[in-house]
């Protein structure tokens, strides 16, 4: 197994851990921003797995049915990643609209802890994938980078809620995360 394969597997493992932490944290704290970020992380896991599979397929040699080999799978994986980003962003917008109309209380302290752990893990994964130039790996790297930016937004929301009690900031940051996801698409 080459170094890029190992890096992808490490990135997938770390990202899965972030996903479970943010889902649990979002449900326990009532934070839509954490759940929105978890949706983004889910897409990161999906993107990483899809990119890893496409990378592995592209290594197969050409045959009589695939005269150019399997390199097109990497482009297809990048396209599917973008399409899934569109879907999740629209769901975030829908839920954020409902929460803006009826803000819900949020446990800001635990929300902050989960968001900081998520940011650190995202930066670790981004560092793991940063030095490869193919379209497939770049697509996965951009997913992770967008999620790191989203984590910063969740940290900001948690801090504001902690000191002001303004629960409406949570769905507002969720909309910003949705926009980041949409731009990534």
Give the helix level as a range of percent: over 70%
Shape: elongated
Count of alpha and pi helical runs = 6
| pLDDT averaged over residues | 83
Largest sheet: none
Give the number of DSSP strands: 0
Rg result: 18 Å
The amount of beta strand, in percent, is: under 5%
Termini separation (Å)?
A: 30 Å
Structural class: mainly alpha
Q: What oligomeric state is this?
A: single chain
Unreliable runs: none
Would you give an account of this structure?
- With 185 residues, the protein is mainly α.
- The protein has helices spanning 3-29, 32-58, 72-101, 108-129, 135-164, 169-184.
- The longest helix has 30 residues, at 72-101.
What is the structure about, briefly put?
The chain has 185 residues and is an all-alpha fold. α2 runs antiparallel to α3, α2 packs antiparallel against α5 and α5 runs antiparallel to α6.
Summary tags:
185 residues; 82% helix
Topology:
Layout (H helix, E strand, L loop, with lengths): L2 H27 L2 H27 L13 H30 L6 H22 L5 H30 L4 H16 L1
Helix pairs in contact: 1-2, 1-4, 2-3, 2-5, 2-6, 3-5, 3-6, 4-5, 5-6
């Amino acid at each position: 197994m080459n170094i890029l394969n190992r890096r992808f597997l490490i990135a997938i493992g770390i990202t899965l851990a972030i996903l479970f932490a943010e889902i649990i944290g979002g449900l326990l704290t009532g934070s839509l921003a954490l759940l929105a970020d978890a949706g983004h992380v889910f897409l990161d896991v999906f993107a990483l797995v899809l990119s890893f599979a496409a990378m592995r397929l592209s290594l197969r040699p050409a045959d009589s049915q695939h005269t150019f080999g399997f390199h097109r799978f990497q482009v297809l994986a990048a396209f599917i990643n973008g399409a899934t980003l569109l879907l999740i962003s629209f769901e975030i917008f829908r839920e954020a609209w409902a929460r803006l109309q009826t803000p819900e209380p949020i446990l800001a302290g635990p929300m902050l802890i989960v968001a900081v752990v998520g940011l650190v893990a995202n930066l670790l994964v981004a560092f793991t994938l940063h030095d490869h130039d193919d379209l497939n790996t770049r697509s996965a790297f951009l997913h992770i980078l967008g999620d790191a930016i989203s984590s910063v937004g969740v940290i900001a929301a948690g801090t504001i809620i902690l000191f002001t009690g303004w629960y409406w900031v949570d769905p507002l940051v969720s909309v910003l995360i949705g926009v980041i996801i949409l731009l990534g698409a």
